[in-house]
Design goal:
60% helix; five-stranded antiparallel β-sheet; 221 residues; alpha+beta; 2 domains; Beta-Lactamase; disordered N terminus; 17% strand
Length: 221
């Protein structure tokens, strides 16, 4: 009984204080090592850096858990942040592994998704330009308000512009037109055209009503 009491007293009075003194030093060293390894992984995502990060993060967390509550709050918060980083890095490492092992399949899938997205954006731009050109034909180009009306049509996102012609003479315009809007034939009723300049590639959509025509443009590149 006496021996048990002595051992308990030694644990609380001697070993406990030693742990409380050493634990912050060990936690600081382990956390610092984990952060250095994490930075190394960000610079060069290799599995060895991730393993070191996880190992030292676990050590830091195990060291700080037995400490009294007031002194471990920030340490646990730091451990939680390192844990979140390790989880995100592990998911990224798996994705990198898949890319490395199945590069041809991954490239084909990525190219397919990119082509689909590009086609969708192009079709959306075509529909928008055709709609702008159709609406521009109804604007009375002989009134001072024609520019304001066209400005509302060309205020959409992207580098877009609209020009209204009557008898091949520009009567009103709005937005930004970086390529010649008179590139399409004045006799052409409607249609699409790719027009280039030394610095831009643009898509043109034309609509015609008698001697009046509207050309809507959008910069593609």
């Amino acid at each position: 009984m006496v021996g048990t009491e002595i051992r308990t007293w030694l644990t609380e009075q001697q070993i406990g204080p030693r742990q409380r003194k050493v634990a912050p030093l060990v936690w600081t060293a382990a956390t610092g090592a984990a952060m250095v390894a994490a930075a190394a992984w960000l610079g060069s995502p290799q599995i060895r850096y991730l393993v070191v990060t996880v190992a030292f993060s676990v050590i830091a967390l195990l060291v700080v858990l037995p400490l009294p509550s007031p002194g471990r709050r920030w340490a646990i918060a730091t451990g939680a942040a390192l844990g979140a980083f390790c989880l995100a890095a592990e998911l990224s490492q798996r994705e990198l592994g898949k890319i490395s092992e199945h590069w041809l399949e991954y490239r084909a899938a990525l190219t397919g998704r990119g082509a689909t997205a590009l086609l969708g954006a192009l079709l959306e731009t075509v529909q928008a330009l055709e709609g702008i050109a159709d609406q521009a034909l109804s604007v009375r180009d002989s009134t001072p308000r024609a520019f304001d009306a066209l400005d509302g049509l060309a205020s959409a996102e992207g580098e877009r512009g609209i020009v209204v012609y009557r008898d091949s003479i520009a009567k009103a315009w709005a937005g930004r037109v970086y390529t010649s809007s008179d590139s399409q034939s004045s006799s052409q009723s409607s249609g699409l055209m790719i027009v280039t300049s030394p610095f831009h590639v643009a898509l043109h959509a034309q609509r015609r009503d008698g001697n009046k025509r509207a050309v809507a443009t959008a910069v593609l590149h």
